[in-house]
Amino acid sequence: MPKEIAIVGAGMLGLTLALRCSDQGFKVTLFESAPEIGGLASVWQIGDLTWDRHYHVTLLSDLQTRKIARDLGIEDEFEWIETKTGFYTDGRLVSMSNTLEFLSFPPLDLLSKLRLGLTILYASKVSDWRKLEQIPVEKWLTRLSGKRTFEKIWKPLLRAKLGEAYRESSAAFIWASIQRMYAARHSGMKKEMFGYVRGGYRRLLSRFQDVLTEKGVEIRLNAKIDRIGATENGAIQIQEANSTRTFDRAVLTCSATVASRLVPGLEPDEIKRLSGVRYQGIVCASMLLKRPISEYYVTNITDETPFTGIIEMSALVDRREFGGLSLVYLPKYIAPDDKMFEQSDEEIEEHFLSGLESMYPAFDRGDVVEFKVSKVREVFPIPVLNYSQMVPEIRTSIPNLFVINSSQITNGTLNVNETVQIAERAFHSVLFELE
Ligand SMILES: Cc1cc2nc3c(=O)[nH]c(=O)nc-3n(C[C@H](O)[C@H](O)[C@H](O)COP(=O)(O)OP(=O)(O)OC[C@H]3O[C@@H](n4cnc5c(N)ncnc54)[C@H](O)[C@@H]3O)c2cc1C
């Protein structure tokens, strides 16, 4: 009889684990509380368009993501594009897409630019991230780039992603971000090549669903797990609404805080560690426009604006994918208890559109065809000092119950490549080894 395994959460992590476990001969049941698979990488409907709920791009150096695409038989469906990056600073939009543009970047004098460039180069060469984990990011960047550059460039960029929690964050966060961008520029074509699968995550996820179904994986949607425990003979009980099912083994891929609530039988220390992970959330608007607002895939913003960046998807993806329209994302990263989560979608739309009007005089509300808001309270853990020592363990005190989730990314930023890597490593080091 094949061993039965339950996987809670059908995001990219749970899906990857389901694929590996079924190939290994497990009988897999995947429980997903949402009506569709994909989690943060899921797709949704914006007007007539079905596209990613949150902007997603794959880098040429994302070998784990590309391997999954290969295993699903769609690696040749990637499009690779050289994109441009913009900076909105002091009320002006400037290009920062190559060295020449960097040297003429207005808000910094030549010496500051040199120090900034050296900071990035130095970070790309550092390999011992554990030391950086002990240093506050503000201290590290100020020492390398200088006070003015920290205030003018680094601080707004850190606040854009981490909010005020940047003060408690370690230098390992900025190191990981720089490493990722550096890898993108220095792999393969020596240019910053960004990619997407034709059809977006809709294509990747539907392929995942087909392949898993062919392999006999049971995918249960709208299946919110309420409680998990162990039976006297060591099996794992999964409780969903009014039904309880028993498995040989179970893996939780939901956030650490959710995991802490689902398993009351864990040791107090484990619950403390799981519930102690502090997350950053997001409000992310998807907007369909009659015409693009800029030529930059990403526009970083250093001024005070209602959102923390602009992602012009049509600078990456052929507009024919969007029925000739332009798809723009406006993200705002916030703490899970931020009052913006209580605002209505209409209030957020009004706030964001007036922000765009003051940034881009040519922007016309009449061009907005659709506007839709996604709100997620737990996206990624705040990379506090010595984070790797606080990370929840994969093995729990309950035999045959495992927690494998993105809070276990210690030396990288949250992205699908890291997520898939966590799943692959955990599968080989823990789940596979048990057979
Ligand atoms: C705005 C944004 C932009 C991003 N951009 C990129 C990008 O450009 N490139 C990139 O590579 N990555 C990007 N990412 C990151 C990427 O989306 C994540 O790395 C990845 O999706 C995480 O997958 P996961 O499975 O670990 O978590 P999740 O996707 O969160 O999956 C967890 C799943 O568990 C389910 N669940 C939770 N509780 C229960 C329960 N009680 N019962 C049953 N199911 C439950 C949830 O519904 C969810 O589906 C982005 C993320 C965001 C938010």
What does this structure look like?
The chain has 435 residues and is an alpha/beta fold. It folds into 3 domains: 4-80 and 198-277 and 384-434, FAD/NAD(P)-binding domain (3-Layer(bba) Sandwich), CATH 3.50.50.60; 99-185, no CATH class; 279-381, Polyamine Oxidase, Chain A, domain 2 (Alpha-Beta Complex), CATH 3.90.660.10. Helices cover 34% and strands 25% of the residues. The chain contains 13 helices and 20 strands. The protein has helices at 12-23, 63-71, 99-103, 110-125, 129-132, 137-145, 147-162, 171-185, 201-214, 256-262, 268-275, 345-359, 416-431, and strands at residues 4-8, 27-31, 43-46, 49-52, 58-59, 78-82, 85-89, 92-95, 193-197, 218-220, 225-230, 236-240, 243-247, 249-252, 279-289, 298-301, 309-312, 326-334, 368-381, 401-403. The strands form 5 sheets. The chain has a 7-stranded mixed beta sheet. A 5-stranded parallel beta sheet has the order 10-2-1-14-20. A hairpin with a 2-residue loop joins strand 7 and strand 8 (92-95). The longest helix has 16 residues, at 110-125. The protein is globular and about 70 Å long. The relative contact order is 0.19. The mean pLDDT is 93.
Descriptors for this entry?
435 residues; alpha/beta; FAD/NAD(P)-binding domain; Polyamine Oxidase, Chain A, domain 2; 3 domains; five-stranded parallel sheet; binds flavin-adenine dinucleotide
